[in-house]
Amino acid sequence: MTIAADVHEVFIAVIPDFPTVYTNGDTPVAALANAYEAIALALEWYEQQGQPAPVPSAVAQAV
Q: Where are the chain's structural domains?
């Protein structure tokens, strides 16, 4: 996960294992909290759709 400030000092969280999931926050901590919530919602969606969730890159690299 990457968290970086944009030109407006809003912190953007990008989650590479979930290419369509990204979020933001007024602080890095808020962006991180929002990212965890976004990941949880994405996992819930995968489950509802009967789709496998992406394999975390740290696990994929270790295998």
A: 2-62
